[in-house]
Amino acid sequence: MSQTASDPWPSSIRRVAFLFAMSAEGTGFARRLGLEDHGNLDPSLPAHWLSGSIPGSGGGSLEVAVGFAGSDPEHRVDRIGTVPAALAAHLLIRRFEPDLLVNAGTCGGFKARGAAVGSIYLGSRAFLFHDHRIPLPGFDAFGVGRIEARYPEELLEVLDAEPGVVSTGDSFTPCAEDLEFFAAEGVHAKEMEAAAIARLARDHGLPFLAVKAVTDLVDHPEPEHEAFLRNLDRVSGALEERLVRLLGWLETRSESRA
């Protein structure tokens, strides 16, 4: 569910952290903001971050950090998935101390639920894990997660986004059980990080958003990986524009409530 007037966000958000799984998803955004590269979040890990002060149109500013899970030194690919994402998010929170944590990135969508390549979803209702199956009392519910999604309703218009249930797993290609789960839960966005970061944000008591852009359609005959690779750069550019809008809205909102 989204937040209501009786359960508002903090009146002023001045420090915003964005976490991306892949460099292709967020490097353009960080460059556009002119952020300073601070290197690794921890000397033993490839996760890295950038930060800077972004002036707003109203005379105020926001402090912004962008973090990445980093490149695996052995396989030389982005460290995608739940464990690197949660670890990088935790380190970024400790280093930057944000007022808001945003997981931005790409996802698979579902044509049957209205998605097309380039559709933008704002994580809504609850964040789920679709491949965290634990058939033990109590652990079964923990495995699925159902971490509540909250945001001011006006953000949907600001981002030109649709509300969407986001489900997270550590495999790119879903199995038959995953597909059954997606149908039963009405999932809109299939991806590999958001629920893990949402749970961490809840532990830290931080407001959390997931903004996801569709690169491929799960229920389409074209192989997902082919569509993903073809559409990644274009869709990441559209995502960047939405994130810039988000920063503008946050700055204006904070100034009006100062």
Please write out the topology:
Elements: E1 15-20, H1 23-33, E2 36-40, E3 48-55, E4 61-68, H2 82-96, E5 100-109, E6 120-129, H3 139-144, E7 145-148, H4 155-159, E8 162-168, H5 176-185, E9 189-191, H6 194-204, E10 208-217, H7 224-256
Parallel strand pairs: 1-4, 1-5, 5-10, 6-8, 8-9
Antiparallel strand pairs: 2-3, 3-4, 6-7, 6-10
Verbal overview:
The chain has 258 residues and is α/β, with parallel strands linked by helices. It has a single domain (15-256), classed as Nucleoside phosphorylase domain (Rossmann fold, 3-Layer(aba) Sandwich), CATH 3.40.50.1580. The protein has helices at residues 23-33, 82-96, 139-144, 155-159, 176-185, 194-204, 224-256; strands spanning 15-20, 36-40, 48-55, 61-68, 100-109, 120-129, 145-148, 162-168, 189-191, 208-217. Strands 1, 2, 3, 4, 5, 6, 7, 8, 9 and 10 form a ten-stranded mixed beta sheet that branches. A hairpin with a 5-residue loop joins β3 and β4. α1 packs parallel to α7 and α2 packs parallel to α6 (194-204). The longest helix is centred in the C-terminal third of the chain and has 33 residues, at 224-256. The protein is globular and about 50 Å long. 41% of the residues are buried.
